[in-house]
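Sharing a chain and its predicted structure for anyone who wants a worked example. Both blocks are below, sequence first, tokens second.
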Amino acid sequence: MHNEPRATAAALLPLVGGPANVVSLAHCVTRLRLVLADRTAVRDAELRALPGVLGVVEDGPSYQVVLGPGAVGRVTEAFEELLDAGRGDSAEQLARRGAELRARHKERNATPVKTALRRVADIFVPLIPALIGCGILAGVAGLLRTLELLPGLTPALTALSAAFMALIAVFVGYNTAKVFGGTPVLGGAVAAVVVHPGVAEVTAFGTPLAPGQGGVLGALAAAALGCCVEKWCRARLPGTLDVLLTPTLTVLVAGLATLYVLMYAAGEVATAVGTAATWLLETTGALAGLLLGGLFLPLVMLGLHQALIPLHTTLIEQQGHTVLLPLLAMAGAGQVGAALAVYVRLRHDTSLRTTIRSALPAGLLGVGEPLIYGVSLPLGRPFVTACVGGAAGGAFVGLFAMLSTEVGSTAIGPSGWALFPLLAGDAGPAWTAGVYGGGLLTGYVVGFAVTYVFGGLRRADPVGAVCDSGGHEPRPADRPGPRPASPR
């Protein structure tokens, strides 16, 4: 079933309550994201035991099934086909149930912090594919320039890689308006003023503005303000005037506020972010790397790591690369080391070892969710020891930052081995890659060693039940179905 997306989708559909229970669906790199009409209709135990399912995450109204990279796209496509073929309820009924579900979840789960983080993720996550593609092209162009190869092609690659970043404010504004319930194109129009060359003729707080000042933070603030103005106008203007005046007032009011207040304020914030990141690594690099590398896996588990995207994007705009991503990438190295230790120790747990073999390539490329939900988190203690490995790798990279060997990434999204083409630093490509590779190796080794010794694992007996020396009940090696407990 691992290799049959339609079979996996067919098995999933009844376990989530059937076609009538699915209000909407989407997917990201590793998860099938469902909005369900009735959460109680899900058969959780059977769903988690399904081969190919690495875990389940609930985030507000979204019920997320972790399937892993590659597989999730194929399963989602098959799931959608089965959904369209099997729906029995009308669109109106599904929309009504979906609205009731969202209202219940909003009352129960929507705190201001959760809502803000989710909105930030919804704005920036759709931009990641373009950031990855343009970042890789920028890395290739830089390598060709350094090696003095293909001089005729280098300017073209540079233009292709820089074009998106030059206009990223427009895309941020478009997505912001979409997330906040405004008209997306108006959000893009308001945010476009941030990158327009004509802003150089405008003075704010006694200082001439510069095109791009404030970057994505200014664009986000501009579009959010534009949504407020648009909603205010639509609630008060009659239909005949609404068509003409609402767009005009939205662009005018939000645009003037952006020029005379928001660009300057966002520029100061963006400068502070860059200064703080540089100071942090130069003065406390090892400690900062230890904390960032050690705490990133819990952020990934909770889905909060997406909220860091604006910081990465701001640093890339300012400095050409983000120094935070290579530190955070060490968490994946610790996860890989921990998974390898589990693989070695639990030789008779065939199901778990199969999961590790299938998820390890993704883990090496920086996609850690399959290993998190399929291996370390269900076992408990290996998740903590994986964080220790990540902390060690982060401290290694941070230590070299204190020694004036900064390692950064020209784009966000890739991690692990996939980050090598995107590396940038002030000590040359070879040395930068060496420091980053040394951090990965440190994370692998420490994650493996700490998990092997302190991971609470003991070898399974031939029956197949895995004993956890940390005091947990035996874990069945093969799913589904009960297994006899291993003798203590």
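Comments welcome. The radius of gyration is 25 Å.
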